[in-house]
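PROTOCOL LOG
Step 1. Enter all chains and additional molecules of the complex.
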Amino acid sequence: MAKKKVILVIFGEGGHQKEMELLLSTLPTNVAYSFISMGPNESNKTTLQHYFCNDVRDKKSHIKSLYYMIVGLFSLLFLTLSAMKKYSIQGAISTGPGIAIVPFIVLRIMGIKTVFIESFCRFNTQSMAGRILYRISHRFLVQNKQLLKLYPNAEYCGRL
Amino acid sequence: MKILVTVGTSSFERLIKAVDKQIPANKYQLTCQISDGKYQPINHKFFHFSDKFPSLIADADIVITHGGAGTIFQLLELQKKIIVVPNLDRIDKHQTDLASFVSDNHYAIVCNNLDQLAYDLEQCIHFTPASYQKDDFFMADDLINYFSSE
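Step 2. Run joint prediction.
Step 3. Record the structure below.
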């Protein structure tokens, strides 16, 4: 049986989740594929399957962040490969944060289209995820025009 | 006057403590949303999270908010009077980026020194925010076409 065609969406907590939920509500639903998602929380828009992973950072401690990062790295790699085994992933979109880095690297190697949307809270600074994924993702979108100075090859997309 | 204090999804103890200490309960009808914060206000009503949050925002005359973008944009679109308090307890200081944007454009009052919160609240009562116009996301069809193409 042919694998089901899906788009993978990856998002973290707080603003990242809010941005993804806004994105999912704007994307047309009458299309040939479904969405699957990956992140620490499920979105309010139901997807075909959600892959749970922890945030790779701790918002208040660097030491905890390092620990979460190492554990997170392997878990994200495993989740991405599991999703690829089960589905035919047509593309991936992330609104951050760094949890998207490992999946995006794997997907890029496998020739799957990746789109990163830098957080709408950024005007004059780059996020850690943005700085790295600017070099990895196929397309890089920004929600504030000021950011085109920091990301010259990015595309302005309006605000979610 | 109804005031809502919100910290979003991460706790922000310094803000809740400052509100509890500085803002008199007999002068304002104030409610705090404290997330998973351990400090619980003594002088004001509080809750952790609530499904009724949108109606609490609609009711509030002034909202004192952490610097999270989700909350701030939601408030700006509702043309609310806002005091933004960047949460510098977080290791990433990105909340100052959006705080500068709202301050430079006169969309909100920004409180960078919590010792002055009561003063900033007085300022906010007489503050007329500039009108925020959202430039809507326009790439939805573009993205779907992009993924559909070979």
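Step 4. Note key features.
The mean pLDDT of chain B is 93.
The CA atoms of residues 33 and 53 of chain B lie 9 Å apart.
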